[in-house]
Amino acid sequence: MSTEPEIYPVPADLAARAHMDRAGYEAARIAARETPDAYWSEQAKRLDWMTFPSKIKDVSFNKEDFRIRWFEDGVLNVSANCIDRHLPHRENDTAIIWEGDEPTDSEHVTYGQLHERVCRMANVLKANGVRKGDRVTIYLPMIPEAAYAMLACARIGAVHSVIFGGFSPDSIAGRIEDCGSTFVITADEGCRGGKKVPLKANVDKALEKVSGVDGVLLIRHTGADVGFVEGRDRDYETEAAKVTAHCHPEPMQAEDPLFILYTSGSTGKPKGVLHTTGGYLFWASYTHELVFDYRPGEVFWCTADVGWVTGHSYGVYGPLANGATTLLFEGVPNYPTVSRFWEVIDKHKVEIFYTAPTALRSLMREGDAPVKATSRKSLRLLGSVGEPINPEAWRWYHEVVGDGRLPIVDTWWQTETGGVLISPLPGATDLKPGSATKPLPGVELQIVDAEGGVLEGATEGNLCITDSWPGQMRTVYGDHARFFETYFSTYPGKYFTGDGCRRDADGYYWITGRVDDVINVSGHRMGTAEVESALVLHDDVAEAAVVGFPHDIKGQGIYAYVTLNKGVVATDALRTALVAQVRLEIGPIAAPDVIQWAPGLPKTRSGKIMRRILRKIAENELGALGDTSTLADPSVVDDLVKNRAA
Ligand code: 6R9
């Protein structure tokens, strides 16, 4: 079936200048595997430690003695690593370039200014009662203050939980409640593609549903007139004027929590993925340098919002730990025109550009002219993340955006992994369009069959990781048992990624997508169970089943089968109301693309919904429905096929 695609060899100049060439990569793989303590101890010198760790790795994935600890007796502060240590030689270099939604809005923030602003914000948090270990919710647009807020928390040892601005008040309330957050940092409004996002109003609504928050710090961004609750809300400008610009970085243990980030799983409500101070920062910094072959002074642009893990690791922590100039963009790829990405690259002389396949596919549809109207000559490397990049989009990225001269790093990783695990290294790895290629040093992959049998050589199955790496998540906040259950119980002794994967004869890895009930919509993770729960909240809905289906732009779309209560008439108005319901419960990113009325759902005799069949119908693979004989009522399938939504 599949023809082996072309190979793009490492350009000679890149191999010569790279941090890691082919021989270096092979040597690092062996060192990390055979002498992990020595290898990681040496690598850990890239961070600035108050106490350098003597214990390096202490890990077991087995149930009896399950533990994941890295650099355990090390002491450090993340914000000091991202700011203070660069001041002696980089005080006047740009740390953050901010590009607003409107092309007329931009700002440069030097490391010196970053230090001052983060210290001030840290002091404001302290003055308002936030202490080491407290959870602080951050609900901000992509403005420099989002980075200041994260770094200010890190500076005083508070644990941040950033929530993407596209999530609804209910989602905010659920996340605040889950981690017992006592303080919220938000802005009046965000701006995306010329539209305003009512952030403060969403926080106000969320706080009607959840208690325990005693302070809301309000950053004025658009200047809109928004609600202000006396006694609870504080105006940032006013508060900042009351404190000094000096704040001592709190000494933190390497295993102290740095942040919680909620992500969707295959069951239940989103999980609070917890990352720690030492291991996470180390991995963000190490991978940012290796994967992007980063050199000091280069302008690095990761287009992800800080509400996602990619924005955490490659918008803020990785680049700043490495003294980079990181670009934060508030807007969207198609505003005011579909040339915006490329114009921003020219405007700020971006050298490394890191984005998601869904953005590329939507821009590809607009043709080559909007790209070719720009120069892009500052670029030297392209990156991709979030979902499998189809070879067609890969080639367009390479040939049109990169003028055929730039390598692409297709980086596979997850919220849970903290940073990249599978990726080409620009100076070491030949590229194959559509493959994330090979694991980084210290990443031990295995492909297993459904029963856990290890598959060797060229094969396809479920992707597992057999040993820990420093950036691995440490727990699901408040539910350590769920952490073990979710990731380590399917295949005992291994971390199961939830992804399917093929390995070719050259040992290259090709991620085929999720094998669990997680769908990847425009690179955003969505649990089918979450969308189903939102739908059944509607009075007219008896039952709902949600699956993914292939979508040209989004990668996957959301297809919902809905069974209505007896006597309810299926109308277009009801369909609209159901979509609105999901937007309200979760946020616009979870809105179903298709709703099909289903008088019945295909269930086994034990009452389990056979999602395999629903997926096939949604994919329009009607010839491949498989065995339906175990269904309680096989005739429901005929009805679903007959009435398949177009
Ligand atoms: C970083 C991030 C994780 C899931 C992951 C996989 C998919 C991410 C990918 C990729 C193929 C890549 N994924 N990068 N699939 N190629 N380069 O996206 O984290 O939001 O937690 O999503 O995304 O399915 O399991 P997260």
Topology at a glance:
Elements: H1 12-17, H2 22-34, H3 36-43, E1 57-60, E2 67-70, E3 75-76, H4 78-82, H5 87-90, E4 94-99, E5 106-110, H6 111-127, E6 135-139, H7 144-156, E7 159-162, H8 169-179, E8 183-187, E9 190-192, E10 195-197, H9 199-209, E11 215-219, E12 233-235, H10 236-241, E13 252-253, E14 257-263, E15 271-276, H11 277-291, E16 299-302, H12 309-321, E17 325-329, H13 340-348, E18 352-355, H14 357-364, H15 369-372, E19 381-385, H16 391-401, E20 408-411, E21 445-448, E22 454-455, E23 459-465, E24 475-476, H17 480-488, E25 495-503, E26 509-514, E27 518-521, E28 524-527, H18 528-536, E29 541-551, E30 555-564, H19 572-585, E31 594-597, H20 611-618, H21 635-642
Parallel strand pairs: 4-17, 6-7, 6-8, 7-14, 8-11, 11-12, 16-17, 16-18, 18-19, 19-20, 30-31
Antiparallel strand pairs: 1-2, 3-13, 4-5, 9-10, 14-15, 15-24, 21-22, 21-23, 23-25, 25-26, 27-28, 29-30
Helix pairs in contact: 2-3, 6-7, 8-9, 11-12, 14-16
The structure holds ligand 6R9.
Residues 263, 308-310, 385-388, 410-415, 436, 497-499, 511, 513-514, 520, 523, 525 line the site of ligand 6R9.
Per CATH, what is the topology of the domain at 522-643?
Answer: GMP Synthetase, Chain A, domain 3
- Amino-to-carboxy terminus distance: 28 Å
The second-level CATH architecture of the domain at 522-643 is: 2-Layer Sandwich
Please, what is the average pLDDT?
95
Q: How does the helix and strand content classify structurally?
A: alpha/beta
Bound molecules: ligand 6R9
Spatially, the strands of the biggest sheet line up as 12-11-8-6-7-14-15-24
Q: Output the number of helix runs.
A: 21
Number of strands: 31
**Can you say what the CATH homologous superfamily of the domain at 522-643 is?**
ANL, C-terminal domain
Class of the domain at 522-643, according to the CATH hierarchy?
Answer: Alpha Beta
Helical content (DSSP H or I, runs of 4+): 25-40%
